[in-house]
Records
---
Amino acid sequence: MRFSVRVKPNAKHDAVGGDYAGALIVAVRAPAVEGRANEAVRKVLAAELGVRARDVLVVQGERGRDKIIELAVVPDTAGERIQALRRQ
């Protein structure tokens, strides 16, 4: 399963929720330096979706705010959960 996210690095706290032009907004405390924000995005999304961080892959946009995320293992409720997070 693939979906798009919009990353907000250097946020006050890690959070997932909201919609930006059809992409799920993911705020992370980590700076956008040396892949730290990407790693934080993987961990935050994994916690929200109930999967392991290693099963969350950044397949496009490693150096930008807009990314395509792929779940290697897709829980049954992943699609519903992502839609619910976009509506927050």
---
Amino acid sequence: MAENTAELDLGSEALSSVVAKFTMSGLGFVGVVLFARVLGPAGTGRYYFALAIALLLVRVDAGVGIALKKRVSEVGSDPRPYLTVGLAFHFAWVILVATTTLVVAYYTPFLPMTPLVVSAVISVLATVGLFQILNRFYAGLGYPSRSLWADTIRSVLTLGFQLPLLFAGYETFGLLAGLAAGTFITAIGVSAAAGIRPGLKGFRNTGEDLFVFARYSVPTAVVEDFYKRVDVILIGFFAGDAAVGFYETALRIVTPAQQLSGSISNALGVKVSGLTSLGQEIRGDIVNTVAYSGLLILPMFFGALAMPAALMRTFFGSSFGVGGPALVGVASFFIFYIYQDPFATALEGSDRPQFVFWLRTAALLIHLPLAVILGYYWDGLLGVIVATISVEVLLFIAYQYVSERNLGGVILPRPIWAQLGSAVLMYVAVIAIRPLISLSWWLPVVGLVAFGAATYFATLTALSSHFRVTIGNVLLPALRRTEQRIDEF
């Protein structure tokens, strides 16, 4: 049964989503560490290259899922025919891709993967695409945080299937097959939790209504994912599998920052959709989301700047230490990428997906030739990363311009500046202490990371009254509810 999405408690939903995302991120990080140590840089790169192809295909389903989430989150909508349209599209897409892949594999030499890995890529498309449809549909019913907990369960099951296959020697195929198996089981569970059966009543009108939004959300999802995945492809082409391994492992270190932003924006999108369907104001919720989207990426960037090689060596092994500059670069462009998330979510939630599509398309058209030029003529790894940083800065400025024109003005809330100041002070403290500590093994590195985190949050608490109020209004009530449930149990 759908909830009234206009009345969602954004703080509570965001907090639950953050816990789910961090749990998922932690599991994913453990997996990447194990993959990197078993496969090495080149083997890790081969896996992520195959995964990049599979997930690029999945983005078509993701775009339809975004449209489903938007439509079913509108107050008063009937979700049953929307589910029918979404599932019908997914099955047609899988059949089309599988048929095309078989033809290409049989008649051409263009697929640089074994037939076993190709079959695993198709399995990932079929299962992850189905999960994208069902889970975004579930979120749109008014359960954004529950949808993220479903994704967390998927991470647990996936890792449980992947590790035995990895240690049995199946390498890339085993990791892809484990992902497909864990995802399929979770998709079945999400379908049961949603409790909505497909319906044919109003199928045609529903399809047309979904198409109005999906004609932008689907190409946006594809363009956005290609924009992200093309870095891996270009780095692999210019610098080889090991450089891809450095890039992908660096991404995993800063992923928790994006998980926080995505968690808050996930709830924001559902609430904005409900509010706009009733003609109500949305700017206040956008401002609050932007204020805390970058809460983690700023200290992560300065932490990476303080000891990049030590972090890479500690988490992934000594052979990854030379990938330290990649970590700094990835953290740099993540700052600007993360702060765009609430703007894109708000525009899509308020039924203006065309803005997001055109901005993402423009970003890709600028990024692709710039990355090719810098990757070829300067440095395969760092050249591509610098190209991404440049485009993310331009895209952030563009979103602020769109916000000025369509969301009531530029949005740069004061809490952001308090977070930046706290991160700088943390960096100074870490740099001052670092020469006194040997970073040759994991315990002092983890200790220095913990010291930096404590310094950042203590400074932020002292500097920002807004942060103190937010803690009081969101975290403390959640802790009290948890205590009550424990007592009742």
---
Amino acid sequence: MKTVILWSVFIGSGVLLSLVLLRSRGAFQWLGKICLHLAFASILLYMMNLFSGYTHIELPLNAVTVGTVSILGLPGLAALAALKLWVL
């Protein structure tokens, strides 16, 4: 019963947040920029994994790596690659 209440509060707050965000005119531009950054980060990580035969660096394509590269850009990709080389 507790999980049902928690999920309903989570879904309800998500719906209300989306309604508030989509009422403003700049929300669509903001949402478009976020989608563009996420797509560009995914493409960069895919290209990095495509050339892993030459570089021997394989980075997983998951939410954490895509989020890091989308926020930090190319320095974030370089930081993830350096972290991968340093840890393993």
